[in-house]
Give the backbone structure.
Amino acid sequence: MKKTFEMEELDCAHCAARMEEGIRRLEGVISVSVNFLTQKLTLEAEDAVFEKVLKQADKVCRKVDANCRVIMK
Amino acid sequence: MTRRQKKNLYRIIGAAILLVAAVLVERLLLSDAPLYLHLFLYLPAYFLVGYDVLWDALRNIVHGQIFDENFLMAIATVGAMALGFLPGAESEFTEAVFVMIVFQTGELFQSIAVGKSRRSIAALMDIRPETACALRETGEIIVSPDEVAVGETILIRPGEKVPLDGRVITGRSDLNTLALTGEAAPRAVEEGDEVFSGCTNLTGALQVRVEKPFADSTVSRILQLMEDMGTRKSQSEKFITRFAKYYTPLVVLAALLVAFLPPLCMGNFRGLFAQWLARALTFLVISCPCALVISVPLSFFGGIGGASRMGVLIKGSQDLEALAKTEIAVFDKTGTLTQGSFTVTGVHPIGVSADQLLALAAAVESGSNHPIAKALRARAGESTLAVSQITELPGRGICARIGSQQIAVGNRALMQEIGAEMSEISANGTVIYVAKESKYLGAIVISDTVKQGAAQAVADLKACGVKRTVMLTGDREALACEVAKQVGVDDYRAELLPADKVREVEVLLTAPHKGTLAFVGDGINDAPVLARADVGVAMGALGSDVAIEAADVVLMDDDPCKLARAIRHARSTVAIVRQNIVLALGVKGAVLICSALGLLGAWRMPLAIFADVGVAVIAILNAMRTLRQGR
């Protein structure tokens, strides 16, 4: 499954790169892109674990920047 | 400004006031007091402006991220304060607080500038229609475009965006296609015409039958391309990402060396350490690669945004970079340099009027679906003549009876067969001859005309440095030669089958050249060539999904002059990227070297801050120029 999420308060470009790398290392992730300019996270992960991966991805983002979060709809 | 930005602004102002107060109190009242009392004077200002930096620094150490800019700023400023307690050093409390204030101010500017750029680029791409007005049994109903099914009827009032692709069933109006094609002239539509989502309806209300679901409509496809843009990264972007990874650790390592090596080597560690530590701390301030990491992708993003404003879709920064390096431009002839449809270009009647000649020929060809027949009908209008006994003579033409007379329309062989004495016409294109019984009535020339801007387009390409232009076509040699001469391409290859075109492009690719090869086609039949070329450019792609899929660059309308404009635009974007890289690395490098040599004196810290955030702000502003280039 591949889905795009909006992000809140993502305000440094190299943080985005760091988030992307952190998320890529998570188990079950097929592809990921954190776009600083559109403030969007595009995550592709295996269906069975998608929700779990998404939560972990959000955690990774907060670890890099405490104010940044993924808006889950 | 966002709430966060406002809050930071107040903090900066507050800290500045506290700093001035601290300096005054220190000068007037505390000149003889012990050093730690001086320190206490400055701490309120320092914590007010820097508490978030310190807090993030602590958090990041816990997470093991020591190369975080907050951590490095924290060390640089705490280090500057600690300097005062070392033997042989001046206290630098004022400098430490000042550096933190300037750093936060720079960050604030940067955040405002980036936010602004992002919004203006986003606004440029804001072609997504919010609502659609569907006409259902219950009457008009406003729904989200993705809730409208294929086959439903929607109402589009003047001033509204076309929400879905469809066909007009009633009404006539002018559409503004600026957002899609960059073309300012409105496009007139009426009953039966296709309309594309993303255009704006200007003059009259239209009722449109929806032909594609929202997800497959033009506007969704374009937005999808924009979203996927991030995955096609340019060499420069990849370079910056790799560079950023090593830059910070390297600068930190250099800082350590500067702090410890010279005093150790010179033998007087106690006496010299403070001085060299002060220089090393400046290194930490410059250690963030922000200016590059933000401005390079922003420049590309702005460049792609600017291009979309002139009706050129570039799929990613990688494609923009390749487009900028175009050295060989290869054109498919039909539909690219020529109109791609046959029109009557010459009428040579003998003994009858031109209109009569055309009417007769069109009547005879009225049953045929051949492109030539279509061109004749388009010129002569619907026939009112009664035609009977139509006989097709393969390879020669058509005979039919109009009234009591036999009319023959065809090539020279047919004329000779029926014994009509005709005069040979030499012209570019297909010549068809007309005879009544055996009396020759004249000839009609039908050809695919060269587009108005084609010669200009080729000249423009040469003017902007494209070294070689080649035309590929499936047409006959003589025709190809004539078109090639008219548009001024350097070279042409004729009588090619679609598969041959791929081979020709491969041959051109193996010839020695430094830049890239761009292939321009109309997306019909040439998808493999588009894919094989370094840069596949699809032209006139509005509404053609195949072309949009296969190409790297899409010219939304069919004006060939757009290619040279797109290349020039891509070049200036790449130039701006280079300027930013040189500016950022140059200033940072200069400040690093000068501060290591101790040339900067008291300006050390402010200059270091400038090299960090000041340069970032300048680079961001420079990056925004890419947006304007599109005009």
Remarks:
- The mean pLDDT of chain A is 84.
